[in-house]
Amino acid sequence: MENELYWHDILLWSEVQADLLRRLARGERVDGVDWDHVIEEVEDVGRSEWRSVEALLLQATVHLLKATAWPDAPPSEHWRSEVIGFLLLARRRFAPSMRKRISVEEVYGDALKQVRATTIDGRPPAALPDQCPFTLDALLSADRDALEAQLQNALQAQLHADGNVV
Q1: Chain-centroid distance, C-alpha 13
Q2: What predicted TM-score, i.e. pTM, was given to this entire model?
């Protein structure tokens, strides 16, 4: 029955399993714990939290890149304010064990692909750094001004290295 509930009513399944686990923790002898799925769900909780932090970092980076690529576009101030909101949420949900699992370079690369595939009022994005200028700690600091400065410095360095002295 527990396995059937798992596939058809996950809410009821989770309530039944929680009750069984509480009873087991109190020393009662119980049958019906769906161990395979309980273990899977416990693992999924951690993965879900990790992925949610990555998603928030991605959204913050996309908005930061958009505000940099189209600084005079009407939504620019909205994007800049969204950066702070996404980063504050990411910082709140971040757990130390995520540090070794989050690749800021991959997050930046995904954000860069998204922004470079975008046009605003028919205009493609302005030049953006090809390489990630941020560290995880810098993003989690939620200091938008410092992040914007790092982005500009990386862009200037890239343009200088390419021979396009600015």
Answers
A1: 29
A2: 0.83
